[in-house]
Batch of 3 targets.
Target 1
Amino acid sequence: MIEYTTKQDGSAVLACFSTDEYLIEVPITGLTDETEIQNKLSYALEQAQNMDWGE
Amino acid sequence: MPIFVGSSDIDDIVIGTTKQESVFVGSDRVWVRPALYNLTVGTSGTLPNGSVSYGFSTAGTAYGSIAFVANHNAYQSDWFKNSGGVGQGDDIYYLLWNGGGSATSKVQLVIGATDTAASQTPNTDVTFSKMTIDGTVFNRTDATYTYSFGSNFSQWEWTTSTNPFGTTTGAVKRIRFDKP
């Protein structure tokens, strides 16, 4: 379970969370299913961990 | 905010010989001269997960290239570089479409640099509101944004099965960034 906050960005709604390594903001406009939101957040974190960040 | 002439979202307004940098309606700024890049398409070849990337990257084995169109006189000459409080992301580190194999197809934009000090490039309209690749529009607020505290790189990712760069290496694609 990823804890997140939401913020409004114009007409879009973003779910925001951070880890020690990343700040991640995921568009969730119109989503109300918490499972679906969690899946999107988990995928975003997995993608971040698999990225080449030039380090 | 775009200004259309017919169906064309214009990127240039000239009065006499003066390139206009912005347009106001009353006190509201409704247009700024966008930043333009020419991207020469390269490819990663097949990656370990079976996917292929097309576009431009300086990560790992570099491919493709990108050039800022300086003579367009964008509203900010250093659009992504510590300009207007945006941050110190050096410039575009890579911009590509990746798909096929076991990968989720996506367009990725990464701003940052490995050779200069950098800071976060924020996920706001100050950075950009939309990116257009060869006519295909990607709204910033539709992207997943990731900032790496370790590298100071900022990434926007759009899930899409359509490769806006095409598969012809050496082709030049126009990239446009707008902000309100």
Note: Residues 21 and 49 of chain A are 9 Å apart (CA to CA).
Target 2
Amino acid sequence: MNASIIFGLLLILMLTGMPISISLGLTVLTFLFTMTQVPVESVALKLFTGIEKFEIMAIPFFILAGNFLTHGGVARRMINFASAMVGHWHGGLALAGVLACALFAAVSGSSPATVVAIGSIILPAMVKQGFPRSFGAGVITTSGALGILIPPSLVMVMYAVATNTSVGALFMAGVIPGLVLAFLLGLTTWAIAKKNNYPRLPKASAAERMRTFREAIWGLLLIVIVIGGIYTGVFTPTEAAAMSAVYAFIIAVFVYKDMPLRGVPKILLSSASMSAMLLYIITNAVLFSFVLANENIPQAIADWIVGMDFGAVAFLLVVNVLLLAAGNFMEPSSIVLIMAPILFPVAMKLGIDPVHFGILMVVNMEVGMCHPPVGLNLYVASGITKMGITELTVAVMPWLLTMVGFLIAVSYWPGLSIWLPKTLGVM
Amino acid sequence: MLKVLDHLEEWLIAFLMAAATSIIFVAVMQRYAAGVPFLYDYVGHLNFSWAQELCIIMFVWMAKFGAAYGVRTGIHVGVDVLINRLEDRMRGKFIVFGLLAGALFTGTVATLGGHFVWENGAHYAFFNALGIAGDELFEGPITADLEWPTWIVYSAIPLGSALMCFRFLQVCVGFIRTGELPHHDHGHVEGLEEDTTDPQRAAQDINWFEMEDGLHPKDLAHHKGEGGDPSLDGRIDTPKEPTPDDWEGGDASAKVTEESRK
């Protein structure tokens, strides 16, 4: 009963178009004022203590790092390196785009950031080379989604916060699925390019490859700092995020000198406002899940679903459908923060691995980012290419289908995600 | 006066971002430098155990004031599938409702938080400073590492929320007067002002939560008569040919909107 009131109210408030954070907060307040005895003042305190966790602070740091990398010329050098490596195969620049997206994803924690960083450079170049615009947009929109699967990843941090899973284990678990998905997207690109005989680049000489590698090395080192640092225990994930922000600042301003020092305040401001927006959703989502937990709603749902005797297979199918549907209305952080506390207890009761479940959610979010009506990647790509959303939706189809196929594999093959963290002993 | 407040807000959150990053960086560096015998003499005596706590406090302050800034710039994401299909008048009503709901929530939180802060030490501190403190007042707890009074730390909630409430009302009044929402990006990508030299960088400065992304309500000034359109996202479905200008950066209109926003 209480559950249906809470969810009903939340749904109605969200549909009025007010910010998600506000609708979460108002739901909680309404419920507290009218139906329970929880002292309302604890709410005010919870608004502060809700995000008083050091792990959450990785989010602003990764956003800041990502913004420095995007502006600092790291993406451009990664693209040059990628083109020198794979540009001579079928698909040429497009294939290089997939590789560059995967590389950039390994230093940035966000999908739209990856689309912006790689897409704004490679898409104009592809059009110039004679690729159809829709082909390039399709490749980059979907490959950009690797940003949240290959560590670091903001969505994984959100999931870790919502479910108390280890950020380090999730990051490691994302590595193999990320590489597999990058390979599959590349394969799709290669096949389409081969069929249509799209332009290829001349094969780069070994010297050329070496030169582009040396130029890109500063950016590539960041992968070592973040993933290596977390794995060896040199840094906690949050510290690694802070280190990568400082490192990204140094290479953008002093090594590559692509960014003038006076551009820094603007980047600080835009990173701060983006992080604040996400942190505000987190605060209110924490409040929301606090109320849910207080009413024992997740447990009740878990008991109910387990009582239905679904089994893990059917449950995962339902989760996928639910998350894909949610992807039509909300952006990933909100979905993870609202859904994870509800679905997680069920998954635990059914014996699903918490890390595997996290990766499954992340892949679902990736698919959601690439199709309308809400798909951040799609809108970013539309901003870069000036293509309409309908046109883009058609353009991403081949890669989107690949991703859905990959999603099924991730759902029913836990080993794909948890083998690496298990082997490395981080979980 | 308002301009001063605007700038203060921007400077505060940008400063907090930079400061928190530097603090964690220095703390980590110190931890490892202290492990090197040769450097130990210089940095070994420093104690950075408070760094995490300070970082958290700074980011919470940043989150509260940044959220207020976000209301002014319109980046808070919502669900717009339903309301963007309504006709103008209805949509206008819903937008006003949403803004007032935001003001209500933040106003309530500001009041609750203010009360909480007052009871947990602010009352004592102020009265003590004035020399009229009674015995029955509660001095309030202090934080774990920095040993700051928590009421100072927690006053981010009432202050930030009050500012946010004010911003919601400000946006609401602006919307009723002009039909405009502070939602930028009307079809182009904003460039860094100094970036006219690099053809590529202009396209990169996208805050994707500011785009027309199906996460924000459409306002009335820029989207007149677009509501009630049954087709999905009718507003962006007109494919535009990329002109050479789009790739060259330094889009002049970008600066115009940037200016007019200020």
Note: Residues 185-205, 227-262 of chain B have pLDDT under 50 and may be disordered.
Target 3
Amino acid sequence: MIPAKFDYTRPSSLDEALSALASGGEDAKVIAGGQSLLPLLRLRFAYPSVLVDVGDVSSLRGVRDLGDSLEIGALTTHYELTRDPLVAAHCGLLAEAAGMIADPAVRHRGTIGGALAHADPAGDLPAVVTALDATLVAVGPNGERSISPGEFFSDYLTTSLAPEEILTAVRVPKLDGWGYRYEKFHVTAQAWAIVGVAAVAQRSNGQVSAARVGLTNMGSVPVRAHAVEAAAAGAEASPAALAAAAAHADEGTNPPSDLRGEADYRRHLARVLTGRALAAAAGM
Amino acid sequence: MTAIDETPAEVGRARARKEDARLITGQTNWTDNMTLPGLVHVAFIRSPYAHARITSVDVSAARSAPGVLAAYSGADFAAEQGSLPCAWPVTEDIVIPDHPPMAVDTVRYGGEIVACVVARDRYAAADAAELVDVSYEALEPVLDMEEALAPGAVKVHEAGNKSFTWELANGDIDAAFRDAPVVVERTYRQQRLIPSAMEPRAVVCAPVGDEYTMWTSTQIPHVLKVMLALVTGIPEHKLRVIAPDVGGGFGSKLQVTGEEVLALLLARKLGRPVKWTETRSEGNVAVHHGRDQIQKLRLAADADGRIRGLDVHLLADMGAYLMLVTPGVPLLGAFMFNAIYKMDAYRFNCTGVFTTKTPTDAYRGAGRPEATFAIERLMDDLAAQLGVDPLELRERNWIKHEEFPFTTVSGLTYDSGNYEAATASAKELFGYDRLRKEQADRLSAGSPVRLGIGISTFTEMCGLAPSRLLGQLRYAAGGWEHAAIRMMPTGKVEVVTGSSAHGQGHETAWSQIVADQLGVPFEDVRVLHGDTAISPKGMDTYGSRSLVVGGTAVVNACDKVRQKARVIAAAMLEVSADDLEWADGRWSVRGDPDQGKTIGEIAFASFAAHNLPDGVEPSLDSDATYDPDNFSFPHGTHLCAVDVDTETGQVRIRSYVAVDDVGVVVNPLIVEGQVHGGIAQGVAQALYEEAAYDSSGNLVTASLADYLVPSAADLPSFTTARTTTPSTLNPLGVKGVGEAGTIASTPAVVNAVVDALRPFGVSDLTMPCTPERVWRAIQSARAEGDAQ
Amino acid sequence: MRISVMIDGVRYEDDVEARLLLVHYLREQAGRTGTPVGCDTSNCGACTVLLNGRSVKSCSVLAVQADGAEVTTIQGLASNGELHPLQQAFHEEHALQCGYCTPGMIMAAVDLLQDNPHPTEEQVRDGLEGNLCRCTGYQNIVHAVLRATGQTATQQAEVSA
């Protein structure tokens, strides 16, 4: 219940934050909303030496329209994602998924940057940014870096962020006119997804012209269901055809077996839920 | 005269509660709120192993940490800590192992206390706890009851893994099964549950000289006080136990815990007030668990479904030690497997088994949900086997309304009931026939979402309990309850009750009772409880007993007050006491009602005592201790409709109807609230909850992140209604309701899920019916079907 | 670290450890024991308060993170001696039994009605998914929140001011 001792600093600019991180050493940790980090600290699963609270770094806030993409500041809370008009207009999948994270109180504090940097494959946003082909923007002593989701999520609870880098923004390509659905399958409302499917689909002339699918909790990192996407491209926009495409959902995955489900059940769920997500995204 | 004749004004009224004033404004008095001058905090170090020898405990680093007053191992307390009590040695040859509050050389469950540190605040205590260095020699855990009983099994205790075997039998069971046209044989698993009251436990113990006051989040301040004296040797009259506001219990705080004993001993050793507050993760391993049985059942019936006999064989997981009533819990169920049904023969055999897991003990229903689950599942299975409607099958077997009072095959005499009326009402509210039709339509349309309908017609035995019967069952204490009424000179009334509410609304309900009994305004009554210095006598709250037993004690005490008042009123009015009659809070002259005195006037007259007759004491105050003659038997019919998504296994409750008969209702708001909350817990057992252990004996569901207690988003609204068949056993006609909802609901839900899946060939599911288990059951049944 | 926090309309200034949880700061240093602690994994919601007008689980916020902020607890809800409509509705609908979850439940409901003054039953249930109750089965809680809808606009303005 009670964390071990740590130091704490609350810089007011990104430069201050970076130098605090650098001088804090290898056990320095960034904290934003704290909704992923504080539970770990309270159960003494982590012993950071210093927390660098970026909550006052205003350059990390805000959603900006970059023309063909949106730039979402890392400090944007899940709650803000559900209410932002730009997000609603141009990448509704993100708003829908953010609205399913935990509960309202957690959503008021939790941030997109924090959730992604925490890199829990059972969390909802990693699969969503994976499906959206988003770019993670990191800033460090050597300047700014753009990282694809595949490069960013390297392992369970592990990203490719260097210890002195801070995730500053997520750039999401606009998918105007695409349908979307985040299917989150869990036993109770508070429970983590046993499996989740993030799907976006573009439809024309009764066909799905393109689809992108990201899977939650089907491996140690979020998984792009490439085989599904290939099968869905050009498929008839019908539940049966999309179910056939979805049958490939578990290819290339390595789902865990745990209290919530054995691997074979997760594979089955991935197939069923991908079919449903695609159908919904395709407007059915 | 033990009952008032006029129509009650308060009993039956939906009074909003007096308790709420402090609870909705945060003016609460939880144990963790308490702070005293010089208070220090204790943190416990707990075994990470399910089974191990303690080879060394080094507290030296902890002792020298900042803010630490002391640190101790079990060895430091070995001489004075005694053994935590088991108050229910169910058989003469029962094995009751020693249960030191702090383990000395062996730990037998993950979470068992092995050391403690005492520091100036909880943060320092948490830091120091990490510095205690304990070395263990890991031993093999014992996690499976059947393996534990097999020859050559690893021993949890020297005396072996069997604690007791207890039997009850009536009628010729062999004859019942011989040539029986239908026999249903099943094995059901009652999973282990974590009660999860919302308030984590906390204890504060303050020494003043050689006397001690303990505030603790308990359901049983009176029982605890006696037990602390017996365990520690501290004289009973030097102990005061206070249950302040308590945030839920459900049986989990019906306990004498190591933490309470150690807090007392630490307060004595250090001469300082000591405080301990549990974390939720600590509580998940350290608070006693509920249920955990393997049930092997055989039911014999005639071709028309009339039950001939029921044979029950239980293995009940005690956990690592016997705690306060651990071995008695399955025995309470022994009388309930036959439930509301008539039959020729019944046999019950239960073996209590030790495992290296957290000890089990009472949890909402304590033995009766387990029994009701088994029989109600069997009835649905029997109905399916015979091709008979499951409600009709139950009606063929249940005790008819005209047949009460009825002595069952397990030896209980049910006073009253009306299963027909409750069932008819439930069927109509539920739309039973319409839902059966929808079920059939969906089946023939091949819909992947199947509709299932589940039934639970239950009774329960509560109002614990007739002391003589408890004695016959070898329970160490009695089942009476005490109440005292104190009349104040200004006509206000204090009710001192031995009941110990932790959410049940006694302050309100007892006020309603007394308001009617004495004809005083509801607002003029104050109920005192929970402090052994203020309520010196009681048997506390559990087993749905407080209204039945405690409420009757209140009524009986009020009766004595009225009788004393009658004598004084007669003197005041200069008439004979026989000429007086009671109405609306007044004794008045029969035939001349203007000549009368209110209870308030009589109370003042007794206070001033200017003109009391010779030999009459200047007081109306009275007390009563009531010992019931029998249990009480609420009953009901619950119907549940579920939608099962056969592609994912997800189960959603679509509608739930509960028609319960709890006898006369004192406060319908409180009764409905108990039914809602009880149903929610039973649904949670059916669908969400399990205390799961891994193969090393670690509790995997160690926090609320993994042990899934449902939220409002996970439960439906329940349609509730009542029938009223008064109890004939007490003056209020009440039956108790605290556990009924939980007892009824689990089988209603599981029966519904199985009903949805029967067309696939599924006939049983192990709880909780998670989506994965549902899906797998369908897959296995399909595979078996293909193979045939 | 020195922090300054406005709690239920009163400014508190204290030196605190960085690791001090907001809920402990409220309970033990500011004496606001009306907000309880129910778990250690931010599931139960008993500790819910408003932080700058929005619901948060105070066990999952560091006191230092509340520096300069306004906190409203259950004890700050009633104004001018009058119960907040939600408090009144919880009482009238018997939406509490032991009362332990009640402060957090009411604060979560305050936030819910702030965002959605006229929720459906389903929206109420979803909006309270972060608050566990073991006593009531939630039914009367839902009734209480629905009962209080439409009456809270004025109180909301006062609470977040």
Note: The mean pLDDT of chain C is 93.
